Amino acid sequence: MERVYSKELSPEDAKAEFSFRVYIATGNTDQQGGLRLLAQACDALARPSDTVDDSIRNLNIIAKAMQALEPSDEIEGQLVSQLIVLNEQCMAWLGRAMKTE
């Protein structure tokens, strides 16, 4: 798993770096709102059999995908998270459909 911050950073700088990364991924200037959006997207993709490691991996994938789409504000962040979740679910269901007769 990728480290969120460098061990050389002071606690204050590490918090600022984390907040900045949440902002970049979600477009949300409020850290708690951005984290909530990431958690909701992760929950939408969760399966009952997921382990903690699976959840962490999913959260990283969602955050990186959202960051790549560069939402500029909270509304775009919500739309981007929906796009990612819908794409993941759509691909999973299409895969299941292709395996049935």
Quickly list its features.
101 residues; mainly alpha; 74% helix; globular
Can you tell me about this structure?
The protein has four helices and no strands. The chain has one domain (11-99). The termini are far apart. By secondary structure, it is mainly α.
The share of residues in helices is: over 70%
Distance between the termini: 39 Å
Number of helices: 4
The succession of helices and strands, N to C, reads: HHHH
Could you provide a short overview of the structure?
The protein is mostly helical and 101 residues long. It has helices at 11-26, 31-45, 52-69, 74-99. It has one domain (11-99).
How is this fold's topology laid out?
Blueprint: H1 11-26, H2 31-45, H3 52-69, H4 74-99
